[in-house]
Amino acid sequence: MSLLKETPYIQICVYKIMGIVQFSELKKPRLLERLWCVPFYLSFILLCWHYNTHPHPDVVIIEVIEIICNLENIVCMITTCFYFYRRNNTLQSVLIKIDKIRSDHDTTFTNRSKRILLISLLALIFAFAPFMDTPPIFLIYIYFPITVNCFDLLFLSDIMTSIYAKFKLINRKFELQAYSTCKIIKLKILQQEVANSEIQLMNELSYLHSSLVQIAITVCQNFTITILVSLVLWFQNVITTIYYVLYQSIHDIDFNLDHVGNLIFLLYSFGWLFSLMEIFTGVEAEASKACTLVHSAWHKYSAEAKINPKIRHLQLISVRLLSTKLRFSARGFFDLDWKFFHLMVATVTTYVVILVQLYI
């Protein structure tokens, strides 16, 4: 699949099975590629419904929580599947646009490390599943959504890593232009033709940068609904897992593999949230460097060279880059940055304190 060059083939196959990717190469998606994920989601919904319609031997409060979480999983997975279908054509066109921008930077290490981290933690969760004192159906309706969300995050990471590489390329060219400009000024050979050439190249780079910002915003908009759904499930799973761990601890239930599995699950959950924020903040930080680099070039011109309308155009380029500053948000509800990460951690902590105060 040429549009995801850095993604392992096995991972692409998982994307297709889950319906995250419904296209191949540059061709229009076929009906089979659109529908072969449907049996998996239908099977999941039927299992969840079967679990809800049968009595549970657990404590009443835990049974109620499980049923509510189960219904929420069904709604979230239906929503996720629908938006996988809806965003497919847009993401395909976005990947084609990104692929047309050549990049000479190797970004596989950053993406590979994130992939290894998340998949390893997810594998640990599945490895402990057979040893946990929990019904298999319960594990399925908990683990299937987090698996879908994990690979959806990896797909987002694949796209954003490509965008990050393009911003890196643009910034490097801006930096080279600023360096060459400084060298020309020091050698006292700054000519009008040279200045015009340098500024014209920076102007073209600024337009490319603005286009890339719009592409990044488009990607974020197409992932927003699935991110919101994933965050709802994340909050639900973290709170219920902490609740269950506290319940076991307070009622003097012996430490067993259930505790270890729950702790690994919490580690994965916070790792997933950390990775999500790191993806967006990393691209934002790289995109914001362009304005600083252009302003630096303008400062060198204005400090050591004669100012003219052509050179002053650098100031307008700097203002343009500043006005198109990249900011990721979830439909305007909140920004996808480290402040939101801190907010989520603080909210979970607040709920845990309330549970402890009420003696659950």
From TrEMBL:
Its main location: membrane. GO terms for biological process: chemosensory behavior; male courtship behavior; sensory perception of taste; signal transduction. The chain crosses the membrane at residues 35-52, 64-85, 116-132, 138-165, 223-247, 259-280, 340-359. GO terms for cellular component: axon; dendrite; neuronal cell body; plasma membrane. Gustatory receptor which mediates acceptance or avoidance behavior, depending on its substrates. InterPro entries: 7TM_chemorcpt. Belongs to the insect chemoreceptor superfamily. Gustatory receptor (GR) family. The keyword Cell membrane applies. It comes from Zophobas morio. It is a multi-pass membrane protein. The keyword Transmembrane applies. It is found in: Cell membrane. This is Gustatory receptor.
